[in-house]
Amino acid sequence: xxxxxxxxxxxxxxxxxxxxxxxxxxxxxxxxxxxxxxxxxxxxxxxxxxxxxxxxxxxxxxxxxxxxxxxxxxxxxxxxxxxxxxxxxxxxxxxxxxxxxxxxxxxxxxxxxxxxxxxxxxxxxxxxxxxxxxxxxxxxxxxxxxxxxxxxxxxxxxxxxxxxxxxxxxxxxxxxxxxxxxxxxxxxxxxxxxxxxxxxxxxxxxxxxxxx
Length: 212
What we know:
Structural class: mainly alpha
Strand content: under 5%
Helix content: over 70%
Mean pLDDT: 82
Radius of gyration: 18 Å
Distance between the termini: 29 Å
Number of helices: 7
Protein name: HupE/UreJ family protein
Transmembrane segments: 43-69, 76-94, 109-131, 138-163, 175-193
Keywords: Membrane, Transmembrane, Transmembrane helix
Number of domains: 1
């Protein structure tokens, strides 16, 4: 019984840890910088996690079920999409730094889907290397997704505190939080894009990609 539950429990714990990956944290920081409610910020994290889990289960499940091999250029391209998205999110935050309107919930859902596309292949391939039974691997993916949703709710709630604190003080400080979050997102996106192009050889004749 315990041996059967171990992969499932491990999936939840690793999903919680997955929520703290740098690109995830930067993305949600940029999104929640305009939130003015702790509960809504946590809900944004949950919606992000749902989008991430949706693509994780669908794409990752297909990879596991059909033993799909992901070419290096495709894997790098999916991660490059995350880099572009981070740059776009950062630019949007800076351009609309004086806009007090909270972002629509469709935005974190879309961001979660893009992150899920980039991460699904890596997670599924790593699962295949350790869990050979398809049903057990699918259960692991579901639990991993659940852990990610819970983790993102916690992470976004914590990250929203500085913006909420600033919002309760002065408008200038609130704008500064948004601009700083946007700038961080742009810088991280550029660095990630550089890594994928230079180190991974995204546009070279022989790209190299390691699922992680």
